[in-house]
Batch of 4 targets.
Target 1
Amino acid sequence: MKKIKNKISFKLFYNDKFVMFFSILVAFISWIYVASTTQESSIFTVTDIPINLPELTDDMRYFNTDDIKAEVKISGNALVVTNVTKDDIFITAADVSFIDAPGDYTIDLVPRKSGVKTDYSFESSVSPSSINVFVDRYDEGRMIPITDKVAVNSVDPSCYASQTLLSRTTVKLSGAESVINSIAEVDAIYTFTETLSQTTVVKVPLVFYDGKGNEISSKYITADVTEVDATVPILDVKHVPIIPKINNIPEKLDFDNDLIKIEPSTIELAVPKNLNVTSVSTSAIDFSQLTKENNSFTVTLEIPSGCRNINSVETSEVSFDMSGMSEKTMTLTSSNFVIKNQGAEQNAVVSNKSLTVKVIGPTSRVNLLSPLSVTAVIDMSDKSTVTEGYVERPVTLEFKDPFAQCWLEGSYTVNVKLSPKQTAAGENPAA
């Protein structure tokens, strides 16, 4: 049988890369052997260890302690201590029994072993050895109004800065109860230093103050918003005329506007840039109430929506020049009454035998006016379905030429008797 000789080749040791790898491997094995057999302790620092504080009684809790980290030095076998991590060590308070009320406290820290690796010792105390904590009860949430403290220093002369609009009017605060209780005001504070000529929006941070005006730190409370959008509407300044609104002017009456005087006759408005405002109306004046004596009316101004009344003018005095007018009392009879818009099945008759009215108009016309030039119109439009009984109806006057410039002073009514319209013999009522 042929013998096979095992020959060890040393050619690999002439390869530089193999020699380097082999050297490192031998050194590592040697280090492990020495480290595991030596009795000398190594010191190692474990860092970034979270702090776990015990729970408190009476519904109190710690605030702003989540980001506090500590470190501690440990000693022991090199192979052991170098494999100890922050998860193997538990750092907590030495004692919290003295905490019995909300406030600031200093708590001493101690380390404890929490992992399966326990073959090591603590070489030093925890660093830091103590921490300062704030303790309080927790307020779930409270709504506090936001005070507008946005200031505008300069506005273009042709513009007007309207009231600042905040995107939020309240803020919800939660956190340390005593801190929230001390907050007297939440302000949105900002000052525009530039000259404004158009509507501008900025983000404004919220600031908390106590009852004495001292600023309160927000580190122990949480707000659902920390800033708000503040909009400063910039409006155009316009001078526009005031136009009186007059109702119940007779259809054929052409009342000369030169006889109407309004004071003040113009108003200064701040108008949104996208709104075309050319005048301002007054509240309505009932023309039928105009007499020789009652010829002046104080009326309120109807400011268009979105506009600001810069002058704060709320009313105007509207007066009518009645110096060329006269009044006349006339008695109308059944020949003057005309009923219009009767119902198809309705028979209407004015019950009044006569009606005394007062007419007003230019003196030259009123002096010549007689009942023959007047028609008293009774409109039955909204009573056309009533076929029996009595109804009271308003009277309007129609003046024949050349008395169209006259009008009825005040308001008058007549009584109208209603009965079903008689059907002729042989006529089909349905038809």
Target 2
Amino acid sequence: MRFSGLRVLKEGLTGNKGWGAHWRDASPREAYDVVIIGGGGHGLSTAYYLAKNHGITNVAVLEKGYLGGGNIGRNTTIVRANYMLPGNAEFYSHSLKLWEGLEQELNYNVMMSQRGQIVLFHSDGQRDALARKGNAMLGQGDDAEMLSREGVRRHLPYLDFDNARFPIYGGILQRRAGTARHDAVAWGFARGASDRGVDLIQNCEVTGIDIENGTVRGVQTTRGAIRAKKVAIIVAGRSSQVAAMAGMRLPIESHVLQAFVSEGLKPAINHVVSFGMEHFYISQSDKGGLVFGGHLDMYASYAARGNLPGVEHVMEAGMALMPMVGKAKVLRAWGGIMDMSPDGSPIIDKTPTEGLFLNCGWNYGGFKAVPASGWATAHLVATGTPHETAGKFRLDRFRTGYGLMDEEASGAQHNLH
């Protein structure tokens, strides 16, 4: 089933009775070449690119709940490529390029909206730091524009430019950044993987990982044992728990990150806006709701809910930046479980167990990485060698201290706990 304007028109005129299921609701078989634990954005994109790029279709994606029910459906949907350090910069640049062609690639409307992101600065030091980052972005081949105070005002006239504590001096604009529809991304990759023969198995929780003589042999699940030549752990905030089934202790802390949506409003915010003096970011969805978030709740937890001090902190930042949001009613809030690495950068690597692979540590940045993460993980699983854009995402950097990529000082800070 392919989508097209003609097909949509035909179905609209015939009662929409011709649409089929978007993917097969498969039952587990006894054995697969590859088992992917985790049916979120990263797991589904890995399955898709295994099939498309490498012709490996004897693949099962195991999800303990429903597809897209984790962080891929609980985030603020921001897509960007504004990284500076080697290792991160080329990876996220690759991801943004994949985002730009994703709807045509998947034949699915993921509602990619390149509305642009503006990161504000409020001091001379911040201006210099963003100028350096902007130059690094341009050197990577991505776009970046420095905006003066008046340049920001032309784009964002509703901000509080003369806040006594946080006056706005200017900002940096990436026009190719923007947002996408989070659950549509999961559905598009699920549909594409299923069409290529991948089994998507929901309500199938992994309860154990079978290892013999240092080699993975399969997994134990609530729907029986499944043999596999290769297994990939791609479970975001549950990474430490699942890796423990294989006898691994990961350098990961799981934290709650809250996000919020307001009631639907008339169009007011055309960009993604990031506060330079506090970790706060906001955009407006196509349905009119203001989508915004801030810092982690700053305590380790597996509960997908947040605390009230975290709520207050985000609301204070929003009011300091744009007092107009105080008139909007918050419609709902939710918490996603973030897999926080010590240096704030991800892990895509083999494990000491032969045939067992790991994808985790996405911190705040998991959504924008979905296409490139799947591309790189599929390459690693299929070939046994890292993809060129993800070669620095090694697990052993936390043991040796060599190759750490502390991009924004936003890692888990294990030394503080």
Target 3
Amino acid sequence: MKERTSPTDRRDFLQQSLLGTAGAGIAIASSAHVTAAEIPDAAEPEITQEVDVLVVGGGTAGIIAAIQAGRSGAKTLLIERNAQLGGTTTTGGVAFPGLFDAWGKQVIAGIGWELVKECVELDGGKLPNFAKVPQRHWMNQVHINQFLYALLAEEKCAEAGVQIACYEFPGSLTATGSGWQVDCVGFGTRRRVLCQQIIDCTGGAEVAGMAGFERLHEDERQPGSYLFKLGKPHEPAATQLHRLYVHGADSTNSRTVTEANLTGRKAILAKLRKDKQRLMHLQPETGFRESFRIVGETMITVNDYTSGRLFEDAISNAFYPVDLHTKSGVKPKPLKPGTVPTIPLRALVPKGSRNILVAGRCLSSDRLANSGLRVQASCMGMGQAAGVAAALAAKSGTTPLEVPLAEIRQTLRDHGQIVPGKA
């Protein structure tokens, strides 16, 4: 008969084993403990909730849109298909957002800049001097710790009263008399959301497309970038990751994203074996540059962008070279001195729609204009404007384009954003 081992004997055995392992040269990390809050009715697979604003996509624009909506007093739910917030900055690993400045002054601020600035300061980093015009645009990119950024994004959402639902995505939506019914699916969860306003920050305007609004999609897409590090450890906010172009990378759906990721990882593994170096860092997925864009109430053309057109309903600035990546690389076309493009509210509104906005790279623009508009600081500015417009529309029981533009702009200024034109 086998003798039973007591809990005390088992503990002593484990301690001796760990000491022996540590003595052999393998360090054992100590454990800390926290307790997750209990979720009411967590065993129930189906839930229904009502909110004022639903933000779909917790990436660059979505975080800011949700925080702004929450700070504006709207009951806000943020749906994110991945395990963390941040999108391109965190999951994609492009942890140098920009550009917040142009020609010696800051042109984009607000909640996005608040989050970036706090991330740099908490990490002991250094911010660029925006008063100095750099020789090359990338010199004023802000380098941040991608891991810390994800944590701070969650904290700011919580402080704004924003509920976060990860691992979920809309499966269908239906217009209602007062807004939308959105049926979302996650593993073990089916969530029905009744909301007044939707902000689509999915990168490819997936929700707008699901609702039947027209989208544009190029036959040829800019390559995605898979970020990794061989040989030496990656030090966040201090060293750059290696980049692998994944040509044909397409974020249209789960199948095309899977193919891009598998292609990138296979190539990285082959390089590791060839170079005989250790793999020190690997992002979880490809960073995508280009997908669907909406056809909005206004479309920003490359001439609008490069001329710095001041739209009559401008709600945010933008700044970056025209930056189209191809199989032969990229040759950015800088903007002429003094030029600062602007983003109109109507470019965030799908043509003929009510109670839905987009923010991020899927805004209404032609391909060349989009290659400059798609960068993080500009997407943050769009997100904040969409958050204000959606919250005010929900509060007044109307739709975003019927909210007085002056009220949107003043609310943006109240929350630290720089609004184009005279105050």
Target 4
Amino acid sequence: MPVDLSFHYNCQDCRINSRLLQRRAGALLRECRIADHGLSILMVDDQEISWLNDHYRHKNGPTNVLSFPFADGADSSLSMLPVKELGDIVISVDTALREAKEFNQSLHDRLTWLITHGLLHLLGYDHELSDTDAIIMQDKEQELLTKLQHSRSTAMTHLAINVDHIATIRQARGGVEPDPVTAAAICEMAGATGIVVHLREDRRHIQDRDVRLLRQTVKTKLNLEMGANKEIISIALDLKPDMVTLVPEKRQELTTEGGLDVTSQKKMLAKTIDKMRKAGIPVSLFVDPDTRQIKAAHEIGATFVEIHTGRYCDATSEKSREQEFQTIAAIAEEAYQIGLRVYAGHGLSYQTTARIAALDTIEELSIGHAIIARAAFTGLDQAVRDMLAIVQEAGRIS
């Protein structure tokens, strides 16, 4: 049965991913073997939960979570109904925000803990009965949260394919083959939900002709990566791709190295974003997983950020890779909470993609080199399908 999540709360400083919390609550019901029961979760402010706390528990002030079992005080005739209801969990988002800061958690992780705690109360656990009961409930909470942490999200992350390196092969001989426009069509037929190309100032791979034909032929979404220079801005305004991603660009680099320093280029980037906005083109900023860059991107009006995953992919030890992953996860949630849509990419391979794809706050991955490299052995259609299978599997509960 579905989890019903509703709000009596409006926060200007946070953004709550209700779909994520519903999925997590559903996973908890499955772990407790009560997936056939209904559960209602209500998000309120401190004022409302204070009233409930006083009215039902005779305690003053706000609390973090209250649970109301369906059977408590219910008419006995309700037991005859062909439905199974656990009851209601009421959570104060105000208190959750304070606790998240106190315990150095993300808001969604704190809300997940409160849902878990409230659910166990509905199931009869009560830490207030005795020290022994408190330990039993705490152990059960930890067990459920550990299982939830290691389960994969059911969110379907989108996969956009960067076909720049098809053009790189073409430019190596200066001919007309292989054609990135044809490659884009194969990627779409194989299941890609977007096509990405980088029109560089030096035109080392993608050419003007390519982006104009792609604008006419791409059926999903065309994302034009570009540096914020006058010539390319003019082309983008004329072309009107579905979106643009502003990236740093150096002539001497082999590929894009690191994210934009938005904090030091706010005025220039804001002007570019404003031009694109007036033309109806949403803008993404390619940034390192850094709080300062995320906040700056939001301040100057970006619609998206694409989080640079290079350090995670290039990590040489499990410890450093885990640290980089945790940084990406935290920054992605921070970006989501302040209202940005979140993409990720750079360096992702068939070995490193799954964990990033499983992050609920990341909407789309942009992957190019790994897929084109595999295509040399398997063909492009199969290479795309192989990567798509990894992304989709990461979206299923393990």
